[in-house]
Amino acid sequence: MFPQGAPGSEPAGSAPPAVGAPSARGTPPIPAVIAEVERLLGAGRTAEAVLLAYRTAEDDVRRAFGMNLPTQWTHREFLAQYLRRDMGYLAELLPQLYASYEPVRYGPPASPAVPHLLDVLRALYQEPALRHPPPAPRTTAGTSRAPHGSGASAPRRT
């Protein structure tokens, strides 16, 4: 799936460095979201892992590029109209992550098969814009999007 040496191309069984610790190749520390997704997958909580992976990555991409989206915009509108070529590999990786997210979020309850979730997530966080994203705004919801159908409104984007 990824060329040799690319994130996610490590041999099977090679353990990633601990969260917050630089890897042997001198790459930045592993983001906490990757460690949490690994933990959820290990616990058999695949749907939760997929939801967390996409929502966090989408928020981080928007923050890294200073995107202020209209509150009513959908994920599909964001992917179709806001991802740009100058974003590099992120413009390919985020839609791949969304391909796993959409059936989990909007489909019937099931145990999804997401064989490349961690590979895509690791590759995404190796991109320069996400290595050191701006700090997350403090919200009570954890993300800047309200859960679909929750009746809650998302914090105002400025």
Describe this structure in words.
With 158 residues, this protein is mostly helical. The chain has a domain of 100 residues. 42% of the residues lie in helices and 0% in strands.
Task: Provide a concise account of the structure shown.
By secondary structure, the protein is mostly helical. The chain contains six helices and no strands.
Question: What are the salient characteristics of this protein?
Answer:
single chain; mainly alpha; globular; disordered C terminus
Order of helices and strands: HHHHHH
As a percent range, the share of strand residues is under 5%
Overall number of strands: 0
Radius of gyration: 16 Å
Largest beta-sheet details: none
Q: Span between N and C termini?
A: 38 Å
> Number of DSSP helices?
6
Shape: globular
> What is the average of the pLDDT values?
73
Which residues sit in consecutive blocks of at least 5 with pLDDT less than 50? 1-28, 139-158
| Backbone structural class | mainly alpha
Helix content: 40-55%
Walk me through the topology.
Blueprint: H1 32-42, H2 46-64, H3 75-81, H4 90-106, H5 117-124, H6 128-131
Helix pairs in contact: 1-2, 2-4, 4-5
